[in-house]
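Standup notes
- DV: blocked on the single-chain target, sequence here:
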Amino acid sequence: MTDDGTGLLTIGKLARATGLSVRTIRYWSDEGALPPATRSAGGYRLYDAGSFARLELVRTLRELGLGLTDVRRVLTGETTVAQVAAAHVAALDAQIRSLKVTRGVLSTVARRGSTAEETTLMNRLARLSAAERARILDDFTTEIFQGLDTADPDIRNRLRFAAADLPDDPTPDQVDAWVELVELIQEPEFRAAMRRMIEFNAADRGRDVPTGSSLWFMSRLIRSAGDALRDGVVPGTPRAAAVLRDLIGDADPAAVLKRLQAVADPRLNRYRELSAVVNGWDRPSARTEEFGWVVAALESQVAP
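- DV (later): unblocked, structure below
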């Protein structure tokens, strides 16, 4: 206390009473979180009992990780401790997610014995913000669907859903897959292959065709080809021709063949595999035998 009987404390005595340093109290005071109750004739800051209580609150809020801007807003009544705490919980959650991704990257680097260049690339891609990851995916889907209004909407939805974000606590395999997936969807050759697939879909699909028909056709193709394989039906035989007629109807076999060759691109299958790892799904089957049978059966019909 001062010696004038006012009950006011100098900054030094306030420091000794609270265990805080004079420097800290002066800084908080300069930042507006702890204004002095008054000043002495010599211009020194003086604090009262209310200042002491305010200082304890400031210390508590600071220990909880609040910045001085938020502290001032709480003390002036602009916001409440609960509101600020909720905002900090969200920020901490984001930081925790980022740290988990970093841990996943480091685990992958340690397991793979990655070079410095690979480590830098993996960290850069895995640490992309959610907004940046969304932008990459939006750019990808925009480019491959641009101007193809008749393409099956289910395909667009499937592609966006497949290229999911990293989980909060990714495994090293998921980090590996995510990095490769991001690199893949940015490759011009891969985008061109995807674009060709969408172009074929848009070309043979009218506006009155129900959504999801393309996926239904692929399911029928796999089932029909699987049955033919089990029954020992050989491509190029009358029995194979009957299976194709049931599958494609009056469609041009050459046009269907081009479409299937686009869908069977190994890069598209790799995209599906990587998406499954990132999402934690079962590894998808490439259905190589089924597609191979249908392609061989179609080639026998379009051969010169």
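- Follow-up: The chain has a mean pLDDT of 80.
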